[in-house]
Amino acid sequence: MKARCLVLSLLWLAVLTLSWPAVRTVVNLGVSDERYVQIIAAPVLFILLLYWERDDIFAGAAWSPRAGTALLSLSLLLYLVLLRRPSYGIGDVRLPLAVLWVVAAWMAAFILCFGPRSFRAACFPLCCLLLMVPVRTSLMDGLTSGLEHASAVTSCAMLRLAGVPVFAQGTRMLLPGVAIEVAPECSGIHSFLSLGLVALLASRVCLRSGWSRLVLVVATIPFAIFKNAMRISVIASLGAYVNRAFLHGRIHHYGGLVFTPLAIALLFALLVALQRSDAWIAETWIWRSSRTIRIGDTELGER
Question: What is the pTM of this model?
Answer without folding.
Answer: 0.87
